[in-house]
């Protein structure tokens, strides 16, 4: 195993003192451009890797930022993380990705650990069921992502009420009056807002919102969607238009329906949410409410970096708009009326 290169070796190669190497890496504004270039050339040539903990002890600015999400298995959050990581890297930062698993106590532990690592700041999709964190909790800049509250001044989110409205308006425009909704965890604000949008549109269309058939999934993946779809079939009087809180749930519902002899979209129209990459290539291409996921990650990362480094930073609450992507899961040719569908 080769010996790890140290500051002394870099200094010798560059013809400067170890202190100059340290200043170049930690306080580049103190070093002339010519000397800085000389040191960085030696760093590259020797493959020197700075010790992050040593940087922290010297008071140097960290190049780390945190991202905490509620479910790493979700394609939505993976796309979000990719956008944050790419934007952070372009600005010279390294992202630390953590998963709270929608558990407030775990979230608190993760945020405390990130603060101990001296991250410049953290992006957070808050877990449900707990008191929202604020910057005073751990003393580092915080930007909420895919979530907003009146109490927190800095966030990038999507108008999920509008997204729910789009899904319901589309189904009602196709003639559906008996709607179903496969909901995610009720402690996640994003999901409750989507349901609210559906109910609002039903009321405006003269439909009784209390007739919305709601199945609350125990998770947000395909297995939970499969169980939810089976529950809808078991209950009977199947809705003819079903909205799902995300695409993964919709894929599971689709499998339950087809296993029960129900055809999408001829018998039941199905709408997802998130427009994940493979929604367009699903067995029956899925109509879905598309979030500007990459844009949300990029804007949140830039907002956090500005918050952490700009003394004149101004807080923002950025709210992005979703859009409906219509595909065959709602618009195929109908093979019959929209009467009640028997359980098979």
TrEMBL record:
It holds the Pfam family LacI. Keywords: DNA-binding, Transcription, Transcription regulation. InterPro entries: HTH_LacI, LacI/GalR-like_sensor, Lambda_DNA-bd_dom_sf, Peripla_BP_I. Residues 5-59 form the HTH lacI-type domain. PROSITE patterns: HTH_LACI_2 (PS50932). CDD domains: HTH_LacI (cd01392), PBP1_LacI_sugar_binding-like (cd06267). One of its GO terms (molecular function) is transcription cis-regulatory region binding. It comes from the Bacteria. SMART domains: HTH_LACI (SM00354). This is LacI family transcriptional regulator. It comes from Arachnia propionica.
């Amino acid at each position: 195993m080769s010996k790890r290169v140290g500051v002394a070796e870099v200094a010798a190669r560059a013809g400067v003192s170890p202190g100059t190497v340290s200043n170049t890496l930690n306080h580049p504004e103190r070093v002339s451009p010519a000397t800085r270039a000389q040191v960085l050339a030696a760093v590259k040539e020797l493959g020197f890797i700075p010790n992050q903990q040593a940087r922290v002890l010297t008071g140097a600015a960290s190049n780390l930022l945190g991202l905490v999400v509620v479910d790493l298995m979700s394609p939505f959050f993976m796309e979000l993380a990719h956008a944050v990581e790419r934007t952070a890297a372009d600005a010279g930062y390294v992202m630390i990705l953590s998963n709270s698993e929608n558990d407030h106590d775990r979230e608190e532990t993760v945020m405390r650990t990130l603060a101990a690592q001296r991250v410049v700041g953290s992006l957070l999709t808050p877990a449900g069921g707990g008191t929202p964190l604020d910057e005073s909790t751990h003393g580092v800049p915080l930007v909420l992502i895919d979530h907003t509250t009146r109490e927190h001044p800095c966030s990038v989110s999507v108008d999920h009420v509008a997204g729910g409205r789009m899904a319901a308006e589309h189904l009602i425009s196709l003639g559906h009056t008996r709607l179903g909704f496969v909901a995610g965890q009720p402690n996640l604000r994003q999901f409750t807002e989507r349901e609210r949008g559906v109910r609002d549109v039903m009321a405006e269309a003269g439909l009784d919102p209390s007739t919305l058939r709601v199945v609350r999934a125990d998770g947000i993946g395909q297995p939970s969607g499969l169980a939810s779809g089976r529950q809808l079939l078991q209950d009977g009087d199947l809705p003819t238009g079903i909205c799902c809180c995300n695409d993964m749930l919709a894929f599971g519902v689709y499998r339950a329906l087809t296993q029960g002899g129900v055809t999408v979209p001829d018998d039941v129209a199905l709408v997802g949410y998130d427009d994940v990459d493979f929604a367009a290539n699903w067995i029956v291409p899925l109509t879905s409410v598309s979030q500007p996921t990459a844009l949300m990650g990029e804007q949140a990362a830039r907002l956090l970096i500005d918050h952490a480094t700009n003394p004149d930073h101004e807080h923002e609450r950025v709210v992005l708009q979703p859009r409906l992507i219509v595909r065959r899961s709602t618009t195929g040719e109908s093979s019959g009326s929209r009467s009640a569908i028997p359980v098979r």
